[in-house]
Amino acid sequence: MDAAAAREVFVTRLRAELHTGEERPPEVSGARRAYREAACLLSRFDPQRLRLPGAAATTGDAVLELVDDCTTLGTQDRAGWSLKSEVREAALRGLAGPGAARRALECQLGQLPPEPGPERFCLDYLAGRPPTTDRLTTDELADALQAVLWLSRVPGVTGLPDTAELQLTLERARLLEPLERLVRSPFQGRARELAELREYVDPSGGAAAAGAEPDGRRRPGPVPPLVVHGPGGMGKTTLLAKFVLDSVHDPAGCFPFAYIDFERPTLSIQEPLTLIAEAARQLGIQFPAHRTELDALAHECQEAARSQREGQERVSQLHELATTRAVLGRRSSQEFQSLAAGRETELIRRLAGVLRRAVADRKGREQSEDPPFALVVDSFEEAQYRGSPVVGRMVAIYLSFQSVYPRMRLIVSGRAPVEHPAKTVEPLDIELGELDPEAAVGLLASCGVEDPEVARALADRVGGHPLSLKLAARAATLAGTGAERTCELISSLPERRHQVFRRVDQLLVQGILYDRILSHIGDAEVRRLAHPGLVLRVITPEILQEVLAEPCGLRVATPEAARALFAEFSRLDLVEPARPDAVRYRGDVRAIMLRLPGGDRTEVMRAVERRAVEHYAARDGLEARAEEIYHRLRLDENPRSVEERWLPGVERFLAGAQQEMTPRAAGLLTARLGGGTPDQVAAGADQEDWERIAAREVEDLLAQGYAQAAFERLGRRRPWTPCSPLHALFAEALSRLGRLAEAREAAADAIDVTEHAGCGERRLELLLLSARLAEEAGDLAGAGRALRVAEDVAVGLGQDLEAMGALLARARLTAGADGGDLEADAQLAERLRRLPDAVLADRPVLVRAVASQIYDRAPGALDHALEVVGLPADDETLDTLGAAMRRATGRQPALLGRVMEILDEAAGPSRQPAGGAPTGITGILRLARDRGTLDALARRLLAVPDRSGEIVAGVAAAMGAGTGARAADHAASGPGPHRRTHEEGSGPAGPEDR
To answer: How many Cα atoms are found within 13 Å in the side-chain-facing hemisphere of 64?
Structure first.
């Protein structure tokens, strides 16, 4: 078919496609069917090269015959076609048999990729040469499974492996693949550490066994966790991978495990539920008979994690306003931590129970003891700090699991064990030091140093630090095999000294080795850029021209020249792509080089950073502002002046940058970003930053109920600054310890200090705290006075939302009394009506709390809140609303039809989610939440003619979930003396009400 004829046919087909009024004929022509069958065993093909069995050559007709049957794959220059799944299915079933399938595939050998793929496996199976699956890689197993799935549709094909078993083999391979990737290079040394790990998990019964006394008897109580720690680059992760793989491949010592790496994006160290979900998923692969139950548990954990995120967001918002922080914020923090820990321990106990049953089903009758279960947690450093709630919740998880499955063992890779009040036993630890000389030589050999004498000489100078050894191997490889060059490299390295100088020696050695590596860069201009460029976190042609080139003594006059130089720079093996037209230095490179003194390059590097500040300061956007802040801090500018450049949202661009800063600069970042604080950083931080760091630790301790530990933490680095957050926390800690009079006195003193210093926000927080302490002491008049002062202060500051928070506290102060504070409720309703919706939308938790407080006295408050901020999306909200609906329909059966109609419409035409149809009202509410119709459902409920007021009160209680809303207490009791029933207008407000 010539080009003109093909174009005419294509135009005719295109017109037919665009003519929507006509149905396409269902018949499939013989040619089209033949081309479908020719392509049905190809994952990707070129239609111009698709050949029919028996045809002497390709004709290109497949382009027109299959244009409606395929999707395109790949990029424009390497586009390929693939049959749509339903077309492929029909074609496979239409093949005449194995012979036809083989002939169709053999015709396409010319366009099969050289590497293995499903097509090659199809040929092997059809030729009677099935592969041995235990020798296949993960990718090859996936291809083999695809081939088996295709061939199982072909009539008459036999001898195929079981697809379920092959799928399970693939999943097991994928489970181990991340670990095998870590030990791809030959593993060197660490025999003692591996033996310690094995003895901890599965003790031989000797005195050193985990959980045993010196006389060999098992000690009562939980077996402590084991922490593997050591400097960065020592190989903690590789050691754990080797340990797990050794146990998996040892038939005699194999035991169930879960490997949790918190650097994976699907796991969050702040959400232990994701750990439980991942452990359940991995155990489901290891125990396929219990897969369904474990997968369901993993799904439940993910749903619970989503609900916890809503709760954590509520806590964060309540802490942002001074007038909600001291009362609602800290109360919700403690409630959140308690509920989260309770939910996590419940789910981990269930997981341990499933494991216990799964092990019992599998082990033989002669086995009396359950095998150990190793929970291996990697990259836990971020959570390891004093007072960390994650550490407290992890301790609860580990103790709960071990109480159900006593042979559970927890191995954590991170920092050295830190003190935490949740600890009930002292953890064991393995500190990774340098490799022994034999292992160091072996590592050098595996990295390309072939001469044993050279390897021994390098190991003697470099020592046993794995990262230093890899750098030495790279430098030796670049130096070449000549004895003179090798001796020059070795002699350039300092001789090793006493242990006290070892860390300094390592830094010096690593710096020298990197300089040697950089000196072998071929292009002279790139070589001049390489070392000073380390201070930049991202390099583009523009940054190279405007920031980097001139301090390095290069003149890059045009954008074209910058792009050409950037192209050469991008070829360095020290850099990696960051995004299109941008590179960054590898993390391991910067981690080492930024710790080293710059020598004669120091001034050049500082000049680069000064130009970087100017460059980014002239640009808009959060990323540019974050880079400006980063380089200002690297230049050791005053943290207070740098803080003036801070914008909300830059935090995500600065995460982890503390390690590249001086202690003072790192103190500001830690105060802003949170997380653990090394003692060196805490000691070097400015007083104001130290106070914020300490305040976060104290807040965390109080949220977990550790008041004494919080009080002790507050006893450092005094006196505090006048606006310090520690003043309020000091009074809070005294109150939690039962020292109420001292707490009130401390709060009063701090209020005076903040007033004189002009610290408006801190004064507001202290006034709210003072009111709460007065209420606890029975001094309601004093509490009321403090709240009125707080409201006046907020109004004076022009802070409408802060004033609303103070009003809410005043309304709640007298909520239990007859009539309550009608004035406060009325003022709240007025503020809610007056403030723009855009302002309210920024504080959804406060708006919900206010609406739930005044709903029975302010027509339309609930409907307005539902319209502007909606209901919370956590499980507590759904449970509260569902319970109110059940009570109302139980007491008034006539409402059931109307309520079910609303539920059905919110759930959509099909109430059949992936896990099956929801059961009960709460299940349907969850489906409505997932579909995004929960708020519309709640607004419709407000119009239900419920004389008892149960449903409206339930909506109000759900609205105020987690904020201590009074409606939560009223939802079960029906209308009170000042609450409106439906007839009085519990639904949306009319124009006169808005």
So the answer is: 18
